[in-house]
Each structure stands twice: as C-alpha cells, then as structure tokens.
Amino acid sequence: MSDQEFIEGPLMAIGEIARRSGVAASALRFYESLGLITSVREGSSRRYFPRSCLRRIAFIVFAQRIGYSLEEIAEQVRTIDANKSPSQEDWKRMTRDWRARVRQRIEELERLDMELDHCIGCGCLSLKRCRLSNPDDRAGRAGPGARVWLGDTLPKGR
C-alpha cells in the first residue's frame, strides 16, 4: 500500500501548492519538517501534497499574522489528521483564542502609536529627558525584551 492511499484527494506538486498558497516552496519544506503539513514522494523524490493541505497552510499563515509562533501553531494542527481537511469544528477549536490575541496586539500597536506621537511631538531624543533613550540601561533591569515598548514602568536611577 502506498502513502498516496492514505491521502485525501488529488496530489499537487510543491510548486503548484506554493503558487496557490502564496507561500514559498522553501517555507513549505520547513513547515513539513516541523510536521505542520505532510507530503508523499514518488520515484524522483519530488514532494506531492494533498490539495487539502491548502487549508492547513491558510491556517498557518493567518495564525502567524496574528502573532502565534510556529510551535504554538504546531500544537494546534497536530490535533487534526494530517491527511484530511480540517472540519468546521476543528477550525472553531483552533481559532477560539484568536480574538483575545488580536485584541492584545491592537492594544500593543495603539501603545506604540502613542509613543511614536510623543517622539514626533517631542523631537528631542534628549539623553536626559527622553524615556526611550534608556539612560543607565534602566530598561535592562526591568527584564528581557523591549520593555519601554511593552509599556513597562522602568526602575528609577541607577
């Protein structure tokens, strides 16, 4: 029994999947290496994907745009048979938390927008007054990451 017998629907070459999905073939190979999508190989070792994987790729792309890591996405897609299209119930389950993530991203972007307005209005980038200049590396004492952009209050002085 060949791998193809376990795959739902017609198979498509990697170039066709890349064209249809708008995702580079190299990214598709990477997704496959992570177990996000599956392919079968025929004699020449060329990859062929089931057409149903286009829906999985769409899910991956949208989830990344919302801010999910590939590791988080993998946790969700591993709950679905790799050779079948996700059902409506699968989609509901996988996207349940997206709205909260979108709202969180909107809040972060609004904070960033306000900071940019402040910088544009101020125009100084004074090393003494501008909180974005990070005198004495106060942001480093607040923890890893872009603390000022994340809205954290920085420790005072040295």
From TrEMBL:
Signal peptide: none annotated. Keywords: 2Fe-2S, DNA-binding, Iron, Iron-sulfur, Metal-binding, Transcription, Transcription regulation. The keyword Metal-binding applies. InterPro entries: DNA-bd_dom_put_sf, MerR-type_HTH_dom, MerR_fam, Redox-sen_tscrpt-act_SoxR, Tscrpt_reg_MerR_DNA-bd. PROSITE patterns: HTH_MERR_1 (PS00552), HTH_MERR_2 (PS50937). It comes from the Bacteria. GO terms for molecular function: 2 iron, 2 sulfur cluster binding; DNA binding; DNA-binding transcription factor activity; metal ion binding. Residues 11-79 form the HTH merR-type domain. GO terms for biological process: response to oxidative stress. PANTHER family: REDOX-CYCLING DRUG-SENSING TRANSCRIPTIONAL ACTIVATOR SOXR (PTHR30204), REDOX-SENSITIVE TRANSCRIPTIONAL ACTIVATOR SOXR (PTHR30204:SF0). This is Redox-sensitive transcriptional activator SoxR. It comes from Bordetella genomosp. 1. The gene is soxR.
